[in-house]
Structure formats: C-alpha cells, structure tokens
Sequence to fold (234 residues):
Amino acid sequence: MKLLTVADLNVAFDGFSVIENLSFEVEKGETLAIVGPNGSGKTTLFRALLGVIPFSGRIEWNKNASIGYVPQRLDIDRQLPMTVNDFLIAKAIISSLKQDSIKKICDAVKIPDGLLKKNIGQISSGQFQRAMIAFALLGDPNILLFDEPTASVDIAGEEELYETLHRLQDQRGLTLILISHDLHLVYRHAAKVLCLNKRKICYGEPIKALTPENLEKIYGRHPALFHHIHNNDK
Fold:
C-alpha cells in the first residue's frame, strides 16, 4: 500500500530553485533513506512533506497517514530547568494524550525512569535523541520522518539507534523516511534510497542505486567512499 506519492515536486525560494521535478513513492512499512551533499534539498524536502513551505507539484499522503517528525536540531535551550519527563508531558498535553501514554512510549524506546528525572541539559546527545524519538512517537504515528538519526550520536550508539528504529518499525508497523550522510548505515538498513542533489539522481535499492557513477554525480570523485560501499556489496 502506498503511503506517500510525490510527483513533479518543485521548491524555490526568492526565485532560486532548491528542488526540481522530483517524483518518488513510499510503501507502507518501508525504510527510505534520502542522501545527498549539504545544500542538496534534503531538509527542504522534509519541510515540503510536512506542508510548512510552499511548493508546486503533488504531495499525496494516504488518508490513514499519521506523521511523527524528529528534526536534526530542536530550537530549545537545553539549559532550561526542564526534565525529560517535563519535555514529554508538554507534548502529551498539547496532543490531549493520556499521561500513561508517556510510560508506554518510554518503555518502547527504552528510556529508563532515571533518565526521565534528569534535566535535558544533563543527558548525552544519544539520550536526547531517544527523548526526541519518544516525543515524535507520542500520538502513535505510523510514519516517522527522521532528519540525520546519528548526526550527534557516537559510533557506539549508531547501530543501537538503528536497531531501536527497526524494532519500533516491526512492533508498530512504522514506515521510516530518514535523511542520512552515513552511506554504510543506509546500505545496511534502508530498503530504498533516494539520491538527491536538487533533482533525483537515483532511486531504488541501495545495492543497485549506490553505484560509483551515481555517487560521483552526487558527491564528486571519492575513491575511498566507493571502495567502502562495494566492500559491503560482497
């Protein structure tokens, strides 16, 4: 079942084109990774999908689609005297959710009670990322948009975070659309990849889409990167 259809999408700011003639689809339960260099339009695409910027073309969500969003950065002062629990309660109140929904989500994301009592400024980047996932999942969305899941997480936490996402995907039937710079993790965890550099460069299974030719079109010549990807193909 298609949850998202994008057709002939164009986004421009002050006459400057950011996304041109972009088309793709996302099926229920898929993991789609969006890759491309800085300034290629990835976050702009998310903003268009969320309906917060003007665009031309067609973005059609399934009538049953319910979206959760984890931004790369959150405009919140982490030095505020706010606990992780306060942070999640705020979302529950705004969304008119029962308080016990927080406990269920924290159990699913594996946020311990001790962490809930800590101020958001006292926790690690990885722990804050988990709090952000819990925040996005309150209200039981069936689609999760995730901008750079491992941008502020150390190497040891990357696999754990992806395993958490896939466990939640299996348990909740989530569809994941994520932006990533880590091609190794994209190759391992995504069912499809959309290579974006203003326009669609490639789209499909990572093993077929992430060819040296397509990577060069996106990132320029980078022999070490190509070697790394194709070592994973063996």
About this structure: The first strand starts at residue 2 and ends at 13. Residues 61 and 84 are 32 Å apart (CA to CA). The radius of gyration is 18 Å. The chain has ten helices and nine strands.
